Amino acid sequence: MALITGTALVAIVWQGAVRIVGSKLAKELVKAGARHLTKKNFKKSYEFFKGNTKIKTSEKNKILEDLNIVTPKVKKVDTKAADKGDKIVEEVIKPTKTQKVLEQTKNLLLPKVLSKRGLVQYPGYYFGGKYILDKDREIKMKEATDAIERVKQKNLEDEKKLHKTKTEETTLGEIDLNTLASPDGHIWKTDQSGNFVLP
Length: 199
What we know:
Number of helices: 6
Shape: elongated
Oligomer: single chain
Order of helices and strands: EEHEEEHHHHHEE
Structural class: alpha+beta
Distance between the termini: 132 Å
Number of strands: 7
């Protein structure tokens, strides 16, 4: 049970709101299911009541500060002092004359292309571009060889068809003596070596 500002008043969470009640009533409400207001169960949406009247925001903030739930507001920072501190830091970090001379000579001797970034970046561009061009050539060559193979296959099939049609038109094809035989049912017989045997 937390006492607020040295009095016997206690903050109790009851029915979705915070009620500021006396210590005896607080004990009874806790027995009935209410809880003491703490950091863990505090919600910003809670409304604060003292009896049945709503409390002003200033009183609500005092209660929360007494219970160490909300820390007091921080005082504003003096901007003039902060600006002076920034100037002091800039002067301390400011490069010396020798550092400036070294930087200028470095820029003269080593152009930006050869800087740390350039030493890694530009060769990466070169080799990346070369890799992409090689892949592109490889894909195009594969497509060309596939097209050539398709054309060869089609030409071969066309030649076979043409040869077949020519043989069917000009000759009888493969001659079977049984088809040429007389319709009386005579069948030519062959021996084991494939020669025709006369009856």
